[in-house]
Amino acid sequence: MLFTDLGLSESILRAINEEGYTSPTPIQEKSIPAVLKGGDLLAAAQTGTGKTAGFTLPILQRLSDSAKPSSGKRQLRVLILTPTRELAAQVQESVVTYGKYTGLKSTVIFGGVGANPQIKAIAAGLDILVATPGRLLDLMSQNCVSLSAIEILVLDEADRMLDMGFLRDIKKILAVLPKQRQNLLFSATFSSEIKALADSLLNSPALIEVARSNSTNEAIAQLIHPVDRTQKHPLLAHLIKSNQWKQVLVFTRTKHGANKLVLQLEKDNITAMAIHGNKSQGARTKALADFKDSKITVLVATDIAARGIDIDQLPHVVNYDLPNVSEDYVHRIGRTGRAGSNGVAVSLVCVDEHEMLRDIEKLIKQKLPQEVIPGFEPDPNAVAQPIQLRSQQHQQNRKPRPSNNGGGSGASKPAAKRSSQPKRSFSR
């Protein structure tokens, strides 16, 4: 199937063609017609499947088909909620890229940066608003944004929004929206919490499930390197140098661990920067931009900070620490092996993490291959030390959150321009 078969306008097809794409991904092939029909949608799609374009393209089409009179100020007609700043910026980039010939106006709002430019953009008149829940509620409380004319609501990565404690904020936003509207809910999982949210929000939704939440991309080569906990950093440096890796996304369990690893890598003359919630907005934006532009070799990230990172043809992902939550393993390694490209996901596993590894293998229903690197053989007599099983972030999310929290962990700079060579599908 081609994009030209999906009922999209010439202006949208022109923008898609300029990005070098001709064929939709499976989630796009199913979701675009469903959204164009105007009904509610519940879709399960992992990161990297192209779900962002799966809703932005038909939304742009629907707004173009029902364009309002040019006289008077534009009314906000579409609200897209995302859990993190990175994802919000990514979604806005998709809206701008594929809507550039439609004449539609959009902006993105999130915390961690000044609100005045965001307020001015809203006041100028918009068709589409991309937002994190906390900043949206903040501006709503200041009467800076009206949701009275919303026709389409999107909850993107709804599972992560619930994980991050945004349910109360979401309910506050839903309470002021028009009752008659189209609702689109995208989630990586169909957990009981997501099903409950869908039951309360959606009206006879179309159901799309592209891949099981516990499946991993066959284009990703997965490998475990057993190692002692004190040898993880030397092993990582060895892998990067001996294999001449040029772009590596590394996951750590904690913010402190991310900062410490960056310092250690820099001593090994390996360029690295960290991205996590304690970094300033400017530092997060610069780190992500430099990594996308290959100015640094390693980007060290925590799980929340990495949500929404979209990097074309990222070759390597390393789990420096295994995640506390098994499902996060799938999200992490899904950063590579996108849009038909191959990727490598390596996990450095010490004795403390053997139980976590078993849980991950049980979830993905496969035994991961293991390779001991010569010179880094783990001590067979090492004794496991306890690991905090619930992250501090998760514990904080169990408490009521202040409504003016911006949500998420840092905005991304628009990705570098893609190659003009034609591609069969795309991953936004």
From TrEMBL:
Domain called Helicase C-terminal: residue spans: 234-381
GO term, biological process aspect, one: response to temperature stimulus
GO MF term (any one): nucleic acid binding
UniProt KW keywords: ATP-binding, Cytoplasm, Helicase, Hydrolase, Nucleotide-binding, Ribosome biogenesis
Intracellular or extracellular location(s): Cytoplasm
Limits of the Helicase ATP-binding domain: 32-208
One Pfam family in the UniProt entry: DEAD
EC supergroup of this enzyme: hydrolase
Region (Disordered): 375-428
Alphabetized PROSITE patterns for the sequence: DEAD_ATP_HELICASE (PS00039), HELICASE_ATP_BIND_1 (PS51192), HELICASE_CTER (PS51194), Q_MOTIF (PS51195)
The family this protein is said to belong to: Belongs to the DEAD box helicase family. RhlE subfamily.
Protein's recorded name: ATP-dependent RNA helicase RhlE
